[in-house]
Specification:
This protein is an alpha+beta fold and about 80 residues long. The chain is about 25% helix and about 20% strand. The chain contains 3 helices and 6 strands, in the order αβαβββββα. It has a two-stranded parallel ribbon with strand order 1-2. A two-stranded antiparallel sheet has the order 3-4. The chain has a two-stranded antiparallel sheet with strand order 5-6. Strand 5 and strand 6 form a beta hairpin. The longest helix has 9 residues.
């Protein structure tokens, strides 16, 4: 059992927010996680071919590395890619 000093240093982070209650990596998901007591959130930031930063977990989409897409290309795929 951890000592109380160790326990006080324990932090809870929402993985991509609260992905059980909202779409992951969204402001809604982050807000829910924080509202339910999480100390912070963990997310994945990727830089696209055009320099745009996005929050996206997977390394690839359809076998193609995410970093090779532009924002316009991903946007044309619709929500959730």
């Amino acid at each position: 059992m951890p000592s109380s000093a160790t326990h006080r240093n324990l932090r809870i982070y929402g993985h991509r927010g609260n992905r059980r209650r909202a779409l992951e990596n969204t402001p809604e998901s982050f807000s829910i996680a924080l509202g339910e007591g999480a100390d912070g959130i963990e997310t994945d930031v990727r830089r696209l071919a055009d320099g745009t930063l996005i929050l996206f977990h997977d390394d690839e989409i359809g076998g193609i590395p995410v970093e090779l897409f532009t924002f316009a290309e991903l946007s044309s795929r619709g929500p959730g890619w």
